[in-house]
Amino acid sequence: MMLRFLFLLYIVCSAAPVFSQFDFGKTAEDESARSGGPVRGTPITQTWRAGIVIEPGAQMENVAVTIPLPRDWYEQKVVKIDEEKIDAALSGKIEYRNVGGGAKEMLLKLGKMRPHRPVEIVVAVELQNYD
User: Fold this and answer.
1) 8 Å CB contact between 57 and 22
2) Handedness of CA 95, 98, 103, 104 (dihedral sign)
3) pLDDT digits (tens, 9 = 90+) for 112-122
4) Is the dihedral of CA 58, 59, 62, 63 positive or negative?
5) H-only helix segments in 1-131
6) How far apart (Å, rounded) are the C-alpha atoms in residues 45 and 61?
7) Residue 49 burial class via C-beta count within 10 angstroms: exposed 0-12, middle 13-18, buried 19 and up
């Protein structure tokens, strides 16, 4: 009888740590605030611009332009990506792709071209960074 009681007591006491590993509706923000961990502050909105200018000159073939873009992380959020200065003839050739484990880039395949005027390709990215 005593052995059964001790066995039952052992099972009840060992169940508490097992169930404590599940969050049961808690969010990461709640958990980090309660545990003294990092908490995101107020967001600061920034606009980043990246691009390239192709000057007039020699004829080019198989031209591919890649522009690195930021991604969502815990401390930053990409709000929007705006293709700011891109010629209408080039806009249909844009691809966004993930590279490797965490990088994102814009790929623009221009093919064959001989620019008679400067060609600007500028992308604006709006970010929210947290303190």
Assistant:
1) no
2) positive
3) 777 787 888 88
4) positive
5) 2-19, 28-35
6) 39
7) exposed
